[in-house]
Amino acid sequence: MSEHFDGTTLHIAGETPRAAGYRMPAEWQPHAGCWIAWPVPGETWGPGLEAARSVYAEVARAVARFEPVLVVAQPEEIRKARTLLGSEVRVEAMPLDDAWMRDIGPTFLVDDAGGLAGVDWRFNAWGRPEWAHQRDAAVAAAVIAWAGAVHFRAPFVLEGGSIHVDGAGSLLTTEQCLLNPNRNPGADRRTVEGWLRDYLGAEQVLWLGRGLHDDHTDGHVDNLACFVAPGVVLALGSSDPGDDNYEPLQENLQRLRGARDAQDRVLEIHVVEQPPPRYEGLHRLAQSYINFYIANGGVVMPSFDAPEHDAAARAVIGELFPDRELVQVRVLDILPGGGGIHCITQQQPLPRTD
To answer: For residues 263-285, b (16+ Cβ closer than 10 Å) or e, as one string?
Structure first.
């Protein structure tokens, strides 16, 4: 990760990433580091701001055990952030509206020649443009410049939490999010698949249906399923037919079991049971064990004060990542803001040097 940002390293590419030879690598491939945005005072957190910041700090310190972490924060919040984050985490100033780097930051790409690029997606606050988001919409370009990467400006709306790739041409997403008219009105499945091919290198798009009940991201896939190895998917499940999430999760599993990846493989599917429901007022919180971050040599995953479920999820994920250390972080205090561990992190891959 670049040590200095002077605004002079920004390179604008005039073609699509695919045409220029770039693709999105799998999250388990080596990282140069991880980007996180620091929670901003306002409506997202209300009186829960300090509790949320404590969770962000714990996640950042956990990731920093495995790879460099750079946290960006509002200029007036720098001192407090550095105090909570400690000396192992780097903190720099950047204007922000919110704190979900997975969605407001760029998606980084690599090529076979050791190049690094970033896609600057259009951001419209998860289809709710009335929410404050103008500063967040500028974050991706700033991060790309800071990283010294080639800059691709996408002509459509997308959030990083809505996609997950295997690095070899397969991409997971949901119809509820990417075909939602509040993102790109009039864009059909074929159009969206063309965008995903041109900007991420997706040769095969695996479409799930709906996301978790009351998830304001409109079904981000990083709560539902992810690749954990080539041809291997971990998915969230529910064993309770009376649960609001049971039907959509069952349908998603059926779709995965009938799918083939870009290499024409039948997928190996592993299922982790969702934790018991938890509410803030009448709103169900989007709890998912899929919402974890794969770091260099580690996995930072959530816990939900549900001992049996937390332990079972840890066992499943531990078996799938036998060569990585698992760190579990209690995330209940960030759930009211609308996301989890994967949502607050964004990996910067390490390009090939050979």
So the answer is: eeeebeebbbbbbeeeeeeeebb
pLDDT digit string (tens) for the chain, length 354 residues: 655 444 444 455 579 999 999 999 999 999 999 999 999 998 899 999 999 999 999 999 999 999 999 999 999 999 999 999 999 999 999 999 999 999 999 999 999 999 999 999 999 999 999 999 999 999 999 999 999 999 999 999 999 999 999 999 999 999 999 999 999 999 999 999 999 999 999 999 999 999 999 999 999 999 999 999 999 999 999 999 999 999 999 999 999 999 999 999 999 999 999 999 999 999 999 999 999 999 999 999 999 999 999 999 999 999 999 999 999 999 999 999 999 999 999 999 999 876
Domains of the chain: 11-349 (3.75.10.10)
The Cα–Cα gap between 79 and 81 comes to: 5
Residues in the chain: 354
Cβ contact 238:250 at 8 Å: yes
Nearest to 96 by CA among 72, 116, 80, 112: 72
CA distances from residue 58 to 36, 321, 337 in whole angstroms, order as listed: 12, 21, 16
DSSP 328: E
Of 100, 35, 151, 45, residue with least CA distance to 291:
100
Q: Any idea which residues carry the catalytic annotation? A: 343
> Phi/psi at 117 (nearest 5 deg)?
-135, 165
Strands 69-73 and 31-37: parallel
